[in-house]
Design a protein that fits this description.
Cofactor: [2Fe-2S] cluster; [4Fe-4S] cluster
Protein name: [FeFe] hydrogenase H-cluster radical SAM maturase HydE
Organism: Defluviitalea saccharophila
Helix content: 40-55%
Oligomer: single chain
Largest sheet: 6 strands, parallel
Strand order of the largest sheet: 2-3-4-5-6-7
Distance between the termini: 31 Å
CATH architecture: Alpha-Beta Barrel
Keywords: 4Fe-4S, Iron, Iron-sulfur, Metal-binding, S-adenosyl-L-methionine
Pfam family, one: Radical_SAM
Number of helices: 14
CATH class: Alpha Beta
Bound molecules: 5'-deoxyadenosine, FE2/S2 (inorganic) cluster
Radius of gyration: 19 Å
Shape: globular
Length: 347
């Protein structure tokens, strides 16, 4: 198996059947080898510097009904909230003071904010913080809308493809959503000039090893600047309430493989990873991730942005959360940096 890992390291990809072998037959010893290779590649590009993104979860209203997600519109138990422009700006102000130079505006697909309003929010942040990156995570929109948001000052966009396989996609989403349109959105974003992030959940219901390989190869061919993966975690008020959560080790293996396939990509150790294991984010970094995304949302709304059960960091203030992560990273030899943390193409 180690020769397969060496091949992956050298060629930055593998054949489908080789990836299946890697995912299904990897031993504990091979995992150690894989993680250390992946970490060495991340160290090559980023050293011991970990980029931070301030996550502002500004609305948990959503018009969609994804079967896995706790803020799906059919969940009548969700306690809905929206932050207005002033509240969003005050999160940015607090975040800037704490050293964040990237703000991620994430929300459900909430049409209460008109397109003009979103443009106004983005351009206001752009003018107030010219040295910061603005990342949007607002779901599927038209080419025109993406373009105008980009022109208003947004730099990056996160839109996970969730699963590259259309049949699997249709098992996770109601018929209105399709893998095809999701991918179209991703290509639109890229064409416009955004740094684009995509990714998937590990261990989502009905996922097969073949599906995971399709995800890896889709990502390889799409060449995103950012890759976010985390375990699926069930939410009690969704159709997937009784499905088991995704596994820590498989998630770490996939992070490491993604690092070897996409050496300079920005890969976060996600909150979901920190939720299924108390040291999940540290383990993610040691398997090749190089980004963390502490929460900047007001404490009063955090519990309400509940995509899955038992989410961590819902009681802590932004400063506490950043400090906590700083200490966690320091313990494993890494430091959080005050930096936009843009994607750098390989020269
Ligand atoms: N478990 C883990 N991740 C989830 N997401 C949504 N619901 C869940 C869940 N139950 C992820 C999706 C989405 C991102 C914002 O959060 O991949 O793209
Ligand atoms: Fe939020 Fe530890 S990172 S409390």
């Amino acid at each position: 198996m180690q020769s397969l890992i060496d091949k992956l390291h050298k060629e930055k990809t593998l054949q489908k059947d080789e990836l299946i072998t890697l995912l299904t037959s990897i031993t504990e010893e091979d995992k150690k080898y894989l993680f250390s290779k992946a970490r060495a590649v991340a160290d090559e590009f980023f050293g011991n510097r970990i980029y931070v993104r301030g996550l502002i979860e500004f609305t948990n209203y959503c018009k969609n009904d994804c079967y896995y997600c706790g803020i799906r519109k059919s969940n009548l138990n969700a306690d809905r909230y929206r932050l207005n422009k002033e509240e969003i700006l005050s999160c940015c102000e607090q975040g800037y003071g704490l050293g964040f130079r990237t703000f991620v505006l994430q929300g459900g697909e909430d049409l209460w904010y008109s397109h003009e309003e979103m443009l106004d929010i983005v351009s206001t942040i752009r003018n107030a913080y010219p040295d910061c990156a603005i990342t949007l995570s607002l779901g599927e929109k038209t080419y025109e809308e993406y373009l105008e948001l980009y022109k208003a000052g947004a730099n990056r966009y996160l839109l996970r493809h969730e699963t590259a396989n259309p049949d699997h996609y249709s098992k996770l989403h109601p018929p209105r959503l399709s893998a095809e349109n999701r991918k179209k959105c991703l290509y639109d974003l890229k064409e416009i000039g955004y740094q684009v992030g995509t990714g998937f959940m590990v261990g989502s219901p009905y996922q097969t090893t073949e599906n995971l390989v399709e995800d890896l190869l889709f990502i390889k061919s799409f060449e995103p600047q950012m890759i976010g993966i985390g375990p699926f975690i069930s939410h009690k008020d969704t159709p997937f309430a009784t499905f088991p959560s995704g596994q820590l080790d498989l998630t770490l293996v996939l992070i490491a493989i993604l690092r070897l396939m996409n050496p300079n990509a920005l890969i976060p150790a996600t909150t979901a990873l920190g939720t299924i294991d108390p040291n999940g984010r540290e383990k993610g970094i040691l398997a090749g991730a190089n980004v963390v995304m502490p929460n900047l949302s007001p404490v009063g709304v955090r519990k309400k942005y509940s995509l899955y059960d038992n989410k961590i960091c819902t009681g802590e203030e932004a400063a506490e959360c950043r400090m906590c992560l700083q200490n966690r990273m320091k313990k494993i030899g890494y430091e959080l940096v005050v930096d936009r943390g843009d994607f750098c193409p390989i020269k």
